[in-house]
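User: Quick sanity check before I run a bigger batch. Here is a single chain. Can you write out its predicted 3D structure?
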Amino acid sequence: MPAARSLGIGAIGWIGLSTATVFGATVFADLGRPLVQAVGPALLLGSSAAAQLASPWLARLAPRASGVLVVVAGVAGIVVGALAALDAVALVGSALVGAGIGVSYRVGLVALTRGTTPARQGALSSLYAAVTYAAAAIGALLVGWVAVGTGLVVAALGALTAVGVAALLAVLWAPRLGDTLEPGRP
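Assistant: Done. Predicted structure follows.
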């Protein structure tokens, strides 16, 4: 599997997770949605952790899944929830974004390091972290730059929408949960 696929899905995930957690509380505060402001980021991070932990089990249940369609659904929930003032929709969207990114980020890392020596795994894991964190930093800087002209709500929701579109396109090439299974194990 080409490294670019793993790095790409990791970058999409980390940009989405960072955008939603860094700007989410402020966006929903600006929109007067205190429940989503308080609970959304924690729900997003909690569901991301839970999905990462559940990924080995999910790999046996749905080996063709990658998590990216869940990200798309979650982004739609956050954006619609924000624009229509529907707290429940935004909260479900937050949980879905977190879960989808939790799966896809882990799948990308495991697919990248699968079958390599421990030393190579360490080097590739460091590369994965460096690339995905740099992508998230660039994404946050771009949101800030755009927000100067448009306001934070428009910039952050626009960035999340871009993440959703990127995730939708990634359906075609994203590593799958089945790529994380040991060969010969169901």
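The radius of gyration is 16 Å.

User: Great, the batch can go ahead then.
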